[in-house]
Amino acid sequence: MAGFLDRAKEQAQRGLTQGKQKLDEVQAQRAGGDLLKKLGAAYYAERRGSGSPEATQQALQALESHIAANGDAFLHS
């Protein structure tokens, strides 16, 4: 009986780990999408004359930092 409980506990732990990894991926993709939208909004505002090149550059740097940390999978989905 102890072997069965050990295997069940191990499977449950594996499931929790996989679930957390998937949640982290989804959150990273969502954050990447938000940063991409901010970059687009900053660029649009700059082109319309109500934004600044500095704001666009900051948005681009934030996006590039996110990509360096999390990859660019959100760009392909």
Care to describe what's here?
- The chain is an all-alpha fold.
- Helix content is 84%, strand content 0%.
- It has two helices and no strands.
- Helix 1 runs antiparallel to helix 2.
- The relative contact order is 0.13.
Approximately how much helix is present in the residues?
A: over 70%
The helix-strand sequence is HH
Largest sheet: none
Distance between the termini: 45 Å
Estimate the strand proportion: under 5%
**Rg value:** 20 Å
pLDDT < 50 runs, ≥5 residues:
none
Secondary structure tally, helices = 2
Can you tell me the overall shape?
Answer: rod-shaped
Could you name the key traits of this structure?
single chain, rod-shaped, 77 residues, mainly alpha
Topology readout:
Blueprint: H1 2-48, H2 53-70
Helix pairs in contact: 1-2
Summarize the structure.
By secondary structure, the protein is mainly alpha-helical. The chain contains 2 helices and no strands.
